[in-house]
Amino acid sequence: MWWGYSAPLDLRCEIEEKEETSKSLEVLIIGASDARHIIKTLASSYKHSDCSIIYHIIEPTMEQVARSILLLSTCLDKDLGLQEATRYYLEIMGNTLLRPATAKYLAKHSKLLADTVTQTIDCPWLNLEKLKHKDRDQLEWIFKFWERATREGVPIVDYWDRRIRKSLKTRYDYRDGVFDWDYHMILKPRGHSNLTIHEYRFWRNNGIAFTWIEGEPARSNPTLLNNIIPLGDGFLHYAYLGDITNGPFFTWALNEEKENVKLRATDIAEREVMRVIHEIRTKEPFCEELVAAHRDPSILNGIIITEMPSSEIEYESWTKYDKYEKQSVPWISIPSTKILFHPLSTLDLLKNKAEYKEKFDTIWIAHNMTKQLPNIIPLLKKKGHILIELRKYLSELRKEDLESFTKELKSTAQVCGLREIKSFNSETHTIAQFCSN
């Protein structure tokens, strides 16, 4: 639930060209779990004509809303170096443990975002007016919890291990064999050429996906915890309830062009995130030589971290950060972009509101939200595109499950009056493309 299972898309490329190029576009993204499509589209804006875009985002939980805001904010933080922002983004997105520098950034930035929710600090690209007051209160609690939990530490690796034990039961003592089977027999044949067995096994054991030789992950990442609610002077949460079988490797780390086969998934992800941050900042193409230019090529394909750090390091307490001053607000200016979050309950209501009828040029839907298609079709413009994430990289699904999902999706789309743009199946594709008639 914390990351997607398909590559980021430049949504401008998915919008059908018309005789007159529209000066404003409306995009709806449902259940993406992260901000990758917004980030990719922002990065590619210099390739297209000037256009203002309003992104309407719906996520199943407020924790996912908070993470999307945090990941966007990290990419747009002009005070960070290029490699610094890249690694902060990847660690926060996909690691249970963070390097100390990343954790300090998370604690400080969570304080900034809590003040943004209360409008103490203005964030020009973020619009929360569609959220209910209780949703905004919950969002503020989440950011405050992250700031406190990063400083004080939470036993997230223990939470992870409990999930593994509960999932594998009697097979727990032979878990490396289970992980190897999933990798060699399921994920590798489906085409992820750069994900190494070392990376995948290390992540399955402890939840750390992205590692580098320049630092050791030691601080817990509270952004991966669920159902955060305040209680007295503290907070309650439901530990870690996210993905423990597939990993965050199927977004930025996918390398379907089969180039640079000697790079790890971590190196591919670093290159792609660095690319989009660079292009957002400069509006210019990315120079490939910027990636890992300081590193010895002989270690690019080696797993960097092979042992877990001491748990005593994780629980070392830090002092509380002061508030940001208004003049230190760090975001890059993106005047043509607005990001508007809606509560999940609006999915049932938008189709009945006149202002949302045939409103959106493009709609993107996660693989687990396809039941909502009948509610979503009335929102799409004539000849607008619907993009649906498929389940190719879900290791718990077998061939017959993928075939069943493909068949069910095609049937539902036909009933809803959608036309396939390209033929697809869940075994070989990650996105299904449809067009309204």
UniProtKB/TrEMBL annotation:
Question: Do you know which Pfam families this protein is assigned to?
Answer: DUF4470 (PF14737), DUF4471 (PF14740)
One GO biological process term is: axonemal dynein complex assembly
- Record carries keyword Transmembrane helix: no
At the top level of its lineage, which domain of life is listed?
A: Eukaryota
For this protein, the record's InterPro entries field holds: DNAAF3, DNAAF3_C, DUF4470
Q: Tell me the ranges covered by the Dynein assembly factor 3 C-terminal domain, including all copies.
A: 126-421
UniProt domain DUF4470: residue ranges: 2-98
Keywords linked to the UniProt accession = Cilium biogenesis/degradation, Cytoplasm
The family note in this entry says: Belongs to the DNAAF3 family.
Annotated protein name in UniProt: Dynein assembly factor 3, axonemal
